[in-house]
Design brief:
- 0% of the residues are buried.
- The chain has helices spanning 6-10, 29-41.
- Helix content is 39%, strand content 0%.
Length: 46
């Protein structure tokens, strides 16, 4: 899923305790990884 698409990320529909592998590349990869982890941990602020 392209990480630039919030809808694409939400459509993953991973169940609780699913294991996800995130691969992030680019100049701001560390910041992007932190933001994605926060979104996932906060259940996309639902």
């Amino acid at each position: 899923v392209n990480g630039k698409s919030i809808m694409g990320l939400m459509m993953i529909a991973a169940e609780k305790d699913s294991i996800l592998t995130l691969k992030i590349f680019g100049e701001d990869e560390e910041e992007a990884m932190n933001e994605l982890v926060n979104l996932i941990n906060n259940k996309f602020e639902e």
